[in-house]
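cache lookup: miss for this entity combination. No prior model stored, computing from scratch. Input as submitted by user K.M.:
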Amino acid sequence: MTTRYFGQRIKRNEDPRLLTGQALFVDDVNFPDLLHVAYVRSPYAHARIKRIDVSKALERPGVAAAYTAADLGDYWRVGPLLVSPPPVRDIVFNERTQPILAKDKVRHVGEGVVAIVAESRYIAEDAVADVVVDYEPLPVNVDVRKTLEPDATLLHEDLDQNLAAHVIQHKGDYEAAKAKADVVIAREFWYDRGTAAAMENRGVVAQWDARFQKLTIWDTTQAPVVIRNGMAAMLGLSESQVRVIAPFIGGGFGPKIMMFYPEEMLIPWLAMKLNRPVKWIEDRSENFYTTTQERGQWHESEIALSKEGKILGVRDVFWHDSGAYDPYGLTVPINTQCTLLGMYDVPNYATEFKAVFTNKPIVTPYRGAGRQHGVFVMERLLDAAAKELGLDKTEIRRRNFLTPDQFPHNHKIIYQDFTELTYDSGDYEPILAKAKEMIGYDEFYKTLKPQAEKEGKLLGLGLVCYVEGTGIGPYEGARVQIQANGRVSVATGVGTQGQGHFTSFAQVVADQVGIPPDEIDVITGDTDQFHWGVGTFASRGAVVAGNAIHAASKRVRQRILDLASEEFNVPPEELEIGNGRVCVIGDPQKTMLLGDLANKANPLRGAVKPGSEPGLEATDYFGPPMGATAAGAHAMILEIDPDTMMIEVKRYVVVHDCGKVINPLILDGQVHGGVAQGLGNAFYEELVFDEQGQLLNGSFMDYLLPTALDVPRIEVGHHETPSPLNEMGVKGAGEAGAIPAAPLFVQAVEDALRAGGIELEITQIPLSPKRLWELVETTKAE
Amino acid sequence: MTDSLKLHFTINGQEHHGEAEPRLLLVDYIRHHLGLTGSHVGCEHGVCGACTILLDGQPVRSCLMFAVQANGREIRTVESLGTPEAMHLLQEAFHAAHGLQCGFCTPGFLMTLVPYLEEHPNPSEDEIRHAISGNICRCTGYQHIVDAIVLAAQKMNA
């Protein structure tokens, strides 16, 4: 072996096309006879549809068709349940999924009522204004707790209450633990909604080729294979007749793993029905209502401790806002339940949630996928406990860490992948120690903070810990093939939305076949190239697809050695692979380009040995028994302007353990981006709904995404505990940056305000300068 | 629908004659009529900056202009900067510093920065952050973008 590419900071293969405007995104797909769709969407959060009149729209020149729910005939349907409820005892789950077009009633603002098809998007949007819909408004449910009250109007009238799910899980006996506790701390927490706001909105283009009997769909999805299988089933086609292409995707972050959006179900059907290619591209305004959102949980939590600060037990009861439907099952609240335990040894845990229907857009995973709620609750409880017990905030955490001898650690509750939540590996004290060292913890409290106080500055430090369940099953696969020109093609079923798969996957292959990463072409998101797989979510691309690629590459390597061994008539141990060649060690004459060997392995004449396969190619799969648990600590120093309550983040440190790292450059980028979204969630971003379920800030003018002036420089440190669950030892990292930012931020804010003599406790997120100012004023008044 | 109006402008060094409805957005004309799909549409209300192009050398939001308003002007899009085989120095710097992830916002950043770096050959990190504060990136947290710009400035001055 010559160079080892795994672990190197290698520049990305996909960049040149993206940087020069040559990369294909869904809205770049064009056809001369393309039709465009625009939607008439509900202006009400809850209403009965009394009458729809599309006649005026159909009279407009350039309008090809207009479809209501009734016009879809037998094709009208609701989306399939994507994730069935986990096997928890006595679970209640009411499956109510989103309709392809609203029939009889609408349950949130933005729900599609009529689809207009026209020769241009401009005409389609004109025609939207021609449609008349009579609505009878109904009382609206927006509050997660009030929606369960007996007099609340039902969203789904066949249910007797607006309950989507009720789940209770127990580990040990919390009440018994509480009875023995020296300290019991109870708090209530509210974590409100935000949106992923990927820079590219969603879109679907579908083309039915009647001569070839083949449907091609370009879709901004994170899971092209699942879309293909689902659309084939819905449209009565064979899976081989449907090709789904998820080309370059302009950011996913979770909502693009939601399936099936109403538009995903409708556009391909329209293309077949009208026998013309059809395009729908979401605009930013639609994105605020129709792309799924996250967060919205009310927690009532309690922690029981000994006087030494050891956790004896935790009880957490929460209400989870599902929005109007629950197509993604219980992934988000189950993640909350499980991730709450964090790095800690919690012997007794009682956890219960009710997921409820509200007249708001649907909630499905968005980066973190409920994990941050759990981390917020636990870290806030520990902060309160530290204060109560007079302990240092890092010391109370350290005292409760799971220790290396406790792994694998089974928490005895069911996780989102239906297995018992089990941490595969971890070593937490060094992570905390490194974070303290990097942020200068002791120095801060010894020198910096007292100095700042003297100068009247509000300077604060935060430090919190978290875990991230990553790389869950069931499986991914990959095909690796050496081409005749010496390049390698690698095809896998996951989609990619900027995570650098074209490069990190190439690095995995490069080490096995001795061909550098820039000569390896990774193909993701094209079901005609690879049609088995699940998708990119739960920080699983590198772990699950990565290990499938690793396995297939190893088989190709073995095949190179076997064939070259025959070719040169030497045993495989005497062969060396590198620089695109295979050669006999110590005999420079006996060498062959891998492309030539691939050609030789695909003969046009002559007998082939029975059982042999052509080419230098292998397909393999990887399915982990459970997820790999990554962990980390974030620390920050911030300063608050006492007059405006604006906050400047002075330093931000991330120490992360995601096992072995394939490409540290790409990993740093993932961490930076996650932190930026986490800070947005903590201080800038909040979807504000009024009592009528109307979103009050549905534009980028009003919903504040962090800019380059708001996101600090982030210092990243690594600790490495390889996962024993896969040969490469990797764990996922995609969500780590986003998960702990909120509790970190509020802890640092409290620390800073304390310097100004203001003792307050923040239990709601997102914060904003306005809310912080109000909190401070209220505290002062008291 | 209103009758189309004549269009005449220069785009990426080429003279262009065409016609468009008065209400057609410039970005839609560039993307869907001229097939230059490197300029992206992220918000259609002038906030995100993904559609930024150069109009007579100045960065503008092509989602906030009508195509007919470009009459007689000179347009440059990301396609004019470099090719995958021969990238512009700024593109090279973004590549080297991992200044992009999904890459959707990137053309807008590049078109904002080309004239900026010509006018400000030695920007500080703080100045860089102000210069790009009108472009939103949801993937990178901006740090590697800032690093890329510092690197580009160094190379331009070398």
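stored under new cache key. The mean pLDDT of chain A is 95.
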